[in-house]
Amino acid sequence: MTRPVPVPDDVSAPFWAATARHVLTVARCSQCTTLTLPPDVICAACGSTDPQYVFTPVSGRGVVRSWTVVRQSFLPGFAVPFVLVDIELDEQDDLRLIGRLLGADETELCIGAAVSVTFEDVNAEIAVPAFELVR
User: Fold this and answer.
1) Please, which of 8, 25, 100, 133 could form a disulfide with 13 given CB 3.0 to 4.6 Å?
2) 103: region left, alpha or beta (phi > 0 left; psi from -120 to 50 alpha)
3) Containing H/E element for 14?
């Protein structure tokens, strides 16, 4: 079965265009420069109702905050089990992204483990961020 594909909208289109090129970006508020993902209509940091987000490339390095092992998938196209990791990116405290862990299993994980971003090409136009342990 085919895996579901993200459908970019006006707000997320810059993020998905960058991931298709294997570049991780996050939204930066033009008012206070705080990074956020996903962007909201109001900046959570400064309260601006006109944050004019600019998607900015980041390193893709971070640490594991938490993880879960998915043993039953309710979506097509995902072989189980797989590990979802909650990553805090290095660029800013509490800047977090969830993705699949590739090339390792849960027995190799610990809180604070270093990871780096990689990308899963879903089709010719869409790549999804995932993570690998830094060895």
Assistant:
1) 8
2) left
3) helix 13-20
